[in-house]
Structure formats: structure tokens, C-alpha cells
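Worked example 3 (structure in, sequence out).
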């Protein structure tokens, strides 16, 4: 679908649902906000070797990029420190073999965890892959240990995390056996790798031994406790049925050029869901739970959160060019797919998007979780406002998101309060997926969107800043790498060095940060909701599974507290159902909170 901007629907939910059911697609004139400055003119694009008419799958981008305003978020400062960190990782996708496979388009993510419990956040990158003739092979990922001074050491070999048995994409972290040492899963083509933390600085790859025996093509994944037994279950997004036996030829814009075929050339694959047996093994529950199996899946992003909220984890899946899925948990770990009913299947005008990255936050402080989705070019990025009872409205126009235009192909994305004013801002990393985009924008700038009273405005950075430069972005995660109280950001790019961006933002505001440790709940407290009570109102945060794109951020929760705002307490709703009230909350510090043992 080609979409340059979307308008806030003023019709009832019933009318929106009817539009969605008929798959209505409409073209609207583009709109822009802030200062409109050119990125790459069409004349310059035509001179680029990547310019050309596409095979029809990607419509031509019109208009110029809105670079935003330097006046918004004046205290926000982000510095590229990659060279000094010792992290020199490049995700490789095998494009040099000239197969132009859709496998090459997904890219790789990044995961963060404190694998050795030294209090510092370490970083893992999936390695990608390549080809030998028509055999799909893998590159090893890399695990970098944080030395505590914003430098890192490659400990892949000594930790035994350098498996190269598959072409890999994502890293998702979760302590699946509740032993206090975080484990992680790596997704990819034809298999997964589950690294079980041994507690001595090493890992064992145990996917087959524990029953996660998929041979499908998995993209994103998410850990969460679906049936309330305190053990983390696993959701795997699967993509499409590409193989060298199903590898159509798609011509490029010029004679002799080969283009990557679009996802509509393939059938989607059914996702997988594995329930934790509580003894370190898993059971494949896909048949019992009836996940969608009609060839439309094409999953790229997943969010595990309680959308209603009613005390259990629901599953939201971002699909590529097909309707998104929402599996609503009935409280017993059984699901019903109801995205259309909840107005989360399509965009505001009833069209299916190419959806990739996803995150959740209460962006407007009404106490309900809202969902943010990064989409394909010509499609507005989607902000779905939760209006109660798990019902949503597409509010990208009302919230200023459509002023970005339709020039981006969005992937990894996170909510984070950069200026500590109490409102969640948004970061997105972008980059094209085909070889010859008509726009010429193969590499694209990341986005920093500042929340100004519920309306998002793009922040402009100096031209030499990483955010102002073009990249082939894919994964994005955040973690406080230097333990200075604010999150830093890790960008994983395709065929380009990954970037470590230090957060040097500073003003007179404060912060609250907590780390939850489950006892009756799962150890990582995935599914918990924490409410910070302040003189400016309640501020909700969510520990969710999945999120972003192929990437895992840290589980600690962080609130900005604007100057003059009084913090009066906190309420924690644990996944076990226990509600805990805290009267005294530390400011500008991190509090570790253990789940009480109920009698």
C-alpha cells in the first residue's frame, strides 16, 4: 500500500472496523511539520547508482525529508563513542554473493544482559550469515563484556557463545530456569540457538535438548509467562517460506540488475509458541493454541504485554504487508486472535502495513498501555492509543507522527524519556531493505521524537552527529552501559559497524529507576506493571517481552521526574497477581525490589 500521510479517524470504532474488514487503502496528500529541509534531492538520487524504477512493489517516494527542529529537547545530547569502546562488530548478510535473497533484508539485532552478575551490562550481537553456492551458512555472533569504564572485551570464545550453525537475526534475553543467571535465544534461518547461562561465565547451547526444535525461519522472539506458573514461555515470530527452491527472480530498475523480491512473493509461516515445563524443557503448543496458519503471518516484531490490563500477558505480532495479530490471553494461557476487534490489525484507514519494530508505553498518562509500531515507507508509523478495555485508536495524525512523512523504512524502536520531563520520547532506526529503492534512500537517518504534551516532534541534531547521518539501521536496544543513571543506545546496522551512543543529556530534572526481581513471578518480572505516584499524576511503566526489532533492552524501569514534581510513592503489580505498595522511593538512584513472599 502507498501512503504518504494518514489522518486521525473521526468515525466510530465500528466504522473503522468495517473499513479494516474490507482492507480499504487510500492515498492522502502529504503533510509536514517543523522545518522542511532536503535530505537527498530527486536529481541527486537519479545520479546515485541505487536509483531506479522498482518492479512495482515499492512506490516512489515523493517530497523531502522533514529534519525536525533543533529547539525541541534542548538538553538531549547523544554522542557516538563506538571507536573508544572496543566494540567493532559488523552484521554480515551475504549480499556479496549476489543472490538478492529476501533473507538478506532482515538484518540483525542486539541484546543486552549482565551475564556474569558484576553489575555492568554486557552486549551480544547475532552474526548473520552467508552462502556457499546454494547452502545457507551462519557467521558467529559476538559477546562483549563490559569492563566498567565504557570499554568492552570480546569474550565470545571463553563464554562459548560463538555458534555459527545458522544464519542468525535476533537476540532475546530471559532467565528461563529462574536461577538468577540470564539466558538468551538467537533466532534465524532453519533453527534457533538457546544459550543457557551456567553461572560460571560460560554458556551451553541447549535448544534441541530442551525441546525447541524448530526448523522454520524465525525473526523476532519474546519471553513471557503466559499461563501464570512463574516460568518463562517463548514466542517465536516466523517470516516467509523462502528457500533456494522458492527463490523467484525480480529484476532491478536497469538491465542486468537483480532486485530483492518483496514479501508478497511468498507465503507467510505460522509462528511458534513453546510452554516452559518447569524442569528446563519446553513443549511446542502451536497446535493446541491455534495460532494463525493461513499463509498471512510474515512476523517481524512481537510485543508481550497486558493490553487490557487484566493480569495476564497478551501477544501482539507485527506482520509484513499483512494484518497484524493480537492474541488475547483468557487468563489460563489460551489465546484468541482478536486484532481486528481491538483495532490493532490495520492502520487508521483499514490498510495492512509493513510493520517491523514495536514498543509499549503510556504516552498520554491515562494509565493505559499504548502501542507504537515502526512501518515501511509511504506508511505512517503507527501510534495506537489505548482508549480502555483493550480497544485502540490509530492516533498518528493527532500525535504529530504523520508530519515525518513517508520516507522511512523503520525497524528497531524504543520508548525512553530522554529529557527526564516525565513523558516518553521515541527513538527509531531506519534503513531500506531493497537494493535499488526509487527514492535513492538506501541508508537513512535515525529518528529522535520528543514528546511535547502528547505530540511528537522530531529533534534535529548537528550534521556531524550519528543521528544526523545515514545508516542501514536494523536493531536498537538501550541499557545504562556506564551506570550513570540514564540509558545509552546500541544501534545494529546491516553491513555497517554497529554504534554505541552515549547519553550525555543533562538538565535540572531527576529520575527514578528500579530493578524488579521476581520470587513467585518469573525472575525477570516480565509482565510487571509499576506505577510511580507523583504530584503531576501517576506514571505507568511496563516490563514487556519482545519489543523493538530483533533486539533486547534492559529490564530495569526508568522514569524522568520534572523539576518541581514530588514523588509520593509507587505501586507494583507483579505477574503473580501480588500488588506491592512502596511509600519511600529513592530519587536519582537505582532501587532493587524483591517480590514479597505471600502467605
Amino acid at each position: 500500500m502507498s501512503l504518504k500521510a494518514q489522518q486521525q479517524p473521526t468515525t466510530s470504532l465500528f466504522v473503522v472496523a468495517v473499513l479494516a474488514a474490507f482492507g480499504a487503502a487510500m492515498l492522502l496528500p502529504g503533510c509536514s511539520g517543523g522545518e522542511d529541509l532536503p535530505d537527498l534531492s530527486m536529481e541527486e538520487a537519479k545520479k546515485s547508482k541505487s536509483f531506479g524504477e522498482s518492479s512495482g512493489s515499492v512506490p516512489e517516494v515523493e517530497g523531502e525529508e522533514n529534519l525536525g527542529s533543533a529547539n525541541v529537547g534542548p538538553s538531549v545530547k547523544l554522542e557516538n563513542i563506538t571507536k573508544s569502546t572496543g566494540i567493532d562488530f559488523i552484521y554480515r548478510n551475504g549480499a556479496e554473493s549476489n543472490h538478492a535473497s529476501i533473507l538478506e533484508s532482515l538484518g540483525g539485532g542486539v541484546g543486552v544482559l549482565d551475564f556474569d552478575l558484576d553489575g555492568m551490562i554486557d552486549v551480544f550481537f547475532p552474526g548473520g550469515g552467508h552462502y556457499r553456492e546454494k547452502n545457507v551458512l551462519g557467521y558467529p555472533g559476538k559477546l562483549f563484556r563490559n569492563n566498567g569504564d565504557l570499554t568492552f572485551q570480546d569474550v565470545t570464545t571463553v563464554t562459548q557463545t560463538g555458534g555459527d550453525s545458522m544464519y542468525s537475526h535476533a537476540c532475546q534475553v530471559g532467565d528461563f530456569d529462574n536461577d538468577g543467571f540470564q539466558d538468551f535465544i538467537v533466532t534465524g534461518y532453519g533453527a534457533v540457538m538457546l544459550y543457557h547461562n551456567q553461572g560460571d561465565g560460560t554458556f551451553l547451547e541447549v535448544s534441541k535438548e530442551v525441546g525447541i526444535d524448530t526448523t522454520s525461519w524465525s525473526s523476532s522472539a519474546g519471553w513471557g509467562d503466559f499461563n501464570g506458573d512463574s516460568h518463562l514461555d517463548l514466542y517465536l515470530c516466523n517470516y516467509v517460506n523462502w528457500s533456494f527452491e522458492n527463490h523467484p527472480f525480480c529484476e532491478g530498475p536497469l538491465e542486468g540488475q537483480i532486485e530483492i523480491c518483496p514479501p508478497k512473493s511468498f507465503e507467510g509461516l505460522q509462528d511458534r509458541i513453546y510452554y516452559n515445563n518447569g524442569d528446563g524443557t519446553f513443549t511446542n503448543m502451536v497446535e493446541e493454541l491455534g495460532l494463525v496458519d493461513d499463509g498471512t503471518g510474515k512476523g517481524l516484531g512481537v510485543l508481550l504485554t497486558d493490553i487490557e490490563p487484566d493480569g495476564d500477558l497478551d501477544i501482539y505480532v507485527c506482520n509484513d504487508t499483512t494484518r497484524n495479530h493480537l492474541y488475547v490471553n483468557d487468563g489460563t494461557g489460551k489465546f484468541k486472535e482478536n486484532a481486528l476487534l481491538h483495532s490493532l490489525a490495520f492502520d487508521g484507514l483499514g490498510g495492512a502495513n509493513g510493520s517491523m519494530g514495536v514498543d509499549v508505553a503510556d504516552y498520554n498518562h491515562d494509565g493505559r498501555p499504548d502501542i507504537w509500531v515502526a512501518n515501511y515507507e509511504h506508511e505512517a508509523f503507527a501510534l495506537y492509543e489505548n482508549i480502555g478495555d483493550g480497544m485502540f485508536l490509530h492516533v498518528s495524525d493527532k500525535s504529530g507522527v504523520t508530519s515525518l512523512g513517508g520516507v522511512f523504512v523503520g525497524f528497531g524502536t524504543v520508548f525512553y524519556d530522554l529529557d527526564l520531563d516525565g513523558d516518553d520520547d521515541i527513538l527509531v532506526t531506519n534503513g531500506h531493505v531493497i537494493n535499488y529503492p526509487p527514492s535513492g534512500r538506501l541508508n537513512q537517518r535515525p529518528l529522535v521524537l520528543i514528546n511535547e504534551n502528547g505530540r511528537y516532534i522530531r529533534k534535529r541534531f548537528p550534521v556531524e552527529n550519528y543521528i544526523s547521518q545515514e545508516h542501514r539501521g536494523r536493531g536498537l536496544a538501550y541499557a545504562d552501559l556506564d551506570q550513570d543513571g540514564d540509558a545509552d543506545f546500541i544501534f545494529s546496522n546491516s553491513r555497517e559497524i554497529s554504534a554505541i551512543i552515549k547519553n550525555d543529556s543533562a538538565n535540572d530534572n531527576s529520575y527514578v529507576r528500579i530493578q524488579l526481581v521476581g520470587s513467585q513471578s518469573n525472575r525477570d518480572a516480565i509482565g510487571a506493571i509499576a506505577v510511580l505516584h507523583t504530584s503531576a499524576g501517576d506514571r505507568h511503566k511496563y516490563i514487556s517481552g519482545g519489543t523493538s526489532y530483533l533486539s533486547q533492552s534492559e529490564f530495569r524501569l526508568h522514569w524522568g521526574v520534572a523539576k518541581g514534581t514530588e514523588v509520593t510513592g509507587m505501586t507494583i503489580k507483579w505477574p503473580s497477581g501480588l500488588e506491592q505498595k512502596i511509600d519511600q522511593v529513592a530519587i536519582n538512584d537505582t532501587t532493587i525490589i524483591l517480590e514479597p513472599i505471600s502467605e
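Notes: The helical segments are 13-21, 42-47, 82-85, 156-159, 207-210, 286-289. The CA atoms of residues 385 and 393 lie 5 Å apart.
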